[in-house]
């Protein structure tokens, strides 16, 4: 009798354990569903797509490696189809929050709930929608800056620690940047990109980093002096050969000093980047020495040989609509391979019901044996 009860207990434990493991799947998927719902709601409420006319298909839902600060990231790739219009939409999430969306027209034009008049009115409408949708306060002064202009043409408007930049080429680029103490800050900004008046890209990284300090304790002249001192003893290797004793040109025309906000321990601080030109071309195509140091402490952050005298490319530069389309198409096959398929809740309920039924059957069987 005791052994039979032990067998019953073990069987019941395995049934319950199996049911519990299977039940974990929809719990994990509920987060995925939340992101999917957020993406579709954003397209409807903020972008202004007429989602009643589109059939939305998820091509891929991919979790990306967390960044250095441990922030979870994911990307959802949608294919939207309606009569005469096909769109490819890429939605980027950070910590389950939608931070950017890229819309690429594969066929026809986007189906909008309201017709567009021009890019300026579209930008105002999208920001109004975003304020209502997100409930964040920092968008209101950003929206107010658009009221200071009558047309979208290349310009720059500064108001306190906020800078609005407008560029117009084959597309219209509008950027609002949080510039503490007037310092360039590529990390905290909102960007809208339009093509033919239609939104192509929306990005909100305004609160990505907090500001640790915006006071510059090291002037440009002091930063150049520190960089030159460190460069005098700098050397680098090409194969087994050490290159040293390089001569720095004392020509301010070719020296570059750029002050920006950069992350240090996940908080932004003022940071100098200096390029010191050399008197000749050194091995390894080296034409200058690049020195970076913190403008609040004067501590040298890095020193290296470089072949560039121009501005270094931004690590977080925003693609143009054409570049975004190429990048998204090239990644589509890779994303599709790891596409997550939804699991029916009916299946989980069915499994749970089977588990209960099996448990009841075992109890009945044991009672019959005991008679």
Categorize the overall geometry: elongated
Roughly what fraction of the amino acids lie in strands?
25-35%
* Low-confidence runs: 2-33, 310-371
Structural class: alpha+beta
Description:
The chain is built from six helices and 16 strands. Strand 11 and strand 12 (241-243) form a beta hairpin. The chain has 371 residues and is α+β, with helices and mostly antiparallel strands. The chain folds into three domains: 2-27 and 345-370; 33-210 and 328-337, no CATH class; 220-306, no CATH class. Helix 1 runs antiparallel to helix 2 (119-134), helix 1 packs antiparallel against helix 6 and helix 2 (119-134) packs antiparallel against helix 3. The longest helix is centred in the first third of the chain and has 46 residues, at 2-47.
Highlighted features:
single chain; 371 residues; alpha+beta; 3 domains; nine-stranded antiparallel β-sheet; five-stranded mixed β-sheet; 6 helices; 33% strand; elongated; disordered N terminus; disordered C terminus
């Amino acid at each position: 009798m005791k052994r039979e009860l032990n067998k019953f207990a073990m069987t019941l434990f395995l049934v319950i354990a199996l049911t519990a493991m299977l039940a974990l799947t929809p719990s994990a998927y509920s987060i995925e569903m939340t992101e999917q719902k957020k993406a579709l709601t954003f397209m409807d409420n903020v972008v202004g797509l007429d989602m009643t006319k589109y059939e939305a298909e998820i091509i891929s839902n991919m979790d990306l490696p967390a960044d250095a600060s441990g922030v979870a990231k994911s990307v959802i790739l949608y294919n939207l189809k309606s009569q005469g219009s096909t769109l490819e939409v890429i939605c980027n999430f950070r910590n389950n929050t939608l931070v950017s969306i890229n819309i690429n027209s594969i066929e026809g034009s986007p189906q909008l709930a309201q017709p567009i008049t021009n890019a300026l009115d579209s930008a105002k409408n999208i920001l109004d929608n975003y304020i209502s949708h997100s409930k964040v306060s920092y968008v209101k002064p950003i929206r107010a800056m658009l009221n200071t202009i009558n047309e979208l043409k290349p310009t720059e408007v500064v108001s306190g620690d906020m800078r609005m930049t407008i560029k117009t080429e084959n597309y219209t680029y509008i950027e609002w940047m949080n510039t503490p103490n007037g310092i360039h800050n590529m990390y905290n900004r909102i960007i809208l990109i339009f093509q033919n008046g239609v939104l192509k890209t929306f990005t909100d990284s305004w609160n990505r980093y907090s500001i640790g300090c915006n006071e510059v304790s090291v002037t440009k002249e002091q930063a150049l002096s520190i960089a030159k001192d460190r460069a005098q003893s700098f050397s680098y290797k090409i194969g087994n050969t050490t290159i040293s004793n390089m001569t720095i040109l004392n020509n301010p025309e070719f020296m570059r000093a750029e002050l920006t906000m950069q992350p240090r321990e996940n908080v932004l601080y003022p940071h100098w980047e200096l390029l010191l030109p050399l008197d000749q071309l050194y091995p390894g195509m080296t034409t200058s020495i690049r020195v970076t140091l913190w403008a609040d402490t004067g501590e040298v952050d890095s020193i290296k040989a470089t072949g560039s005298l121009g501005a270094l490319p931004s690590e977080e530069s925003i693609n143009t609509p054409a570049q975004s389309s190429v990048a998204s198409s090239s990644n589509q096959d890779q994303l599709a391979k790891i596409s997550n398929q939804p699991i029916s809740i009916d299946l989980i309920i069915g499994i749970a019901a089977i588990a209960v039924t099996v448990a009841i059957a075992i109890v009945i069987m044991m009672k019959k044996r005991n008679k």
